[in-house]
Amino acid sequence: MALRRKRRSAKKRRSTKRRRTARRRVSMDRRLVSSQPSEVRRLARKFGVTGKVVKRVIRKVGHSRKKVEAALKKM
Fold this sequence. Notes:
Blueprint: H1 10-30, H2 37-47, H3 51-61, H4 65-74
Helix pairs in contact: 2-3, 3-4
């Protein structure tokens, strides 16, 4: 007797794919830094610099969180 797989409906498959894409987008957002005041303030406090310095570093190295934090550590 062969085992039979239960097939999911097309609607179920779409919703699963949508959830997976949303998860990927969230994890990508965590890797990026924006110039929003709250995020600039958080980074400035974390590294003991001013907001202007943080904004300048973001403009210089880009929006990658790793690059921004590495540049701020060097200061």
